[in-house]
Amino acid sequence: VEQVTWNKCQEFIEKLNSLTGKKFRLPTEAEWEYAARGGNKSKGYQYSGSNTIGKVAWHCYNTSTVQPVGRKAPNELGLYDMTGNVSEWCSDWLAPYSAQAQSDPTGPDSGELRVYRDGGIGHTVEACHISIRYGQSPDYNDEATGLRLVMHE
């Protein structure tokens, strides 16, 4: 899914949950980063699945359009396109990171900007690093802003 606002993601998730009887949601920023880094199988790569961005990501230097998922290598968890291609909304409001160590943190209860992660096709290689974070209005969208869902059983 691409060209979608955070608000439209919420509408889609609500409909999906009612149709399936399951509970889907956007990941927290911490969950997204854990998955992008390869979870407990992480090899400490700079990008999701490699230190060589061309192996795992579409970005502004190798495409000008969103590509079908899975045309680049997956990360250690078998997840595709966690770097490049489409930036992905998270559930959190954007706020500075806490200076204290935290386990599975969530963002603040309110704010102005929602978090989205990963550099999409309009981003440079430098902007595709796993740790880069962005914030936009919940009504923001562009050609390369989408979603990845978490499902609870």
| Parts with pLDDT < 50 across at least 5 consecutive residues | none
Structural class designation: alpha+beta
- Per DSSP E runs of 2 or more residues, the count of β-strands stands at 6
Major sheet details: 4 strands, mixed
Which key phrases capture this entry?
alpha+beta; four-stranded mixed sheet; single chain; 18% helix; two-stranded antiparallel ribbon; 15% strand; globular; 153 residues
What features would you describe in this structure?
- The protein is of the alpha+beta class and 153 residues long.
- Helix content is 18%, strand content 15%.
- It is built from three helices and six strands.
- It has helices at 6-20, 29-36, 53-56; strands spanning 23-25, 87-93, 114-117, 133-136, 145-146, 150-152.
- The strands form two sheets. A four-stranded mixed sheet has the order 4-3-2-5. Strands 1-6 form a two-stranded antiparallel sheet.
- The radius of gyration is 15 Å and the shape is globular.
List the helices and strands and how they pair.
Blueprint (H helix, E strand, L loop, with lengths): L5 H15 L2 E3 L3 H8 L16 H4 L30 E7 L20 E4 L15 E4 L8 E2 L3 E3 L1
Parallel strand pairs: 2-5
Antiparallel strand pairs: 1-6, 2-3, 3-4
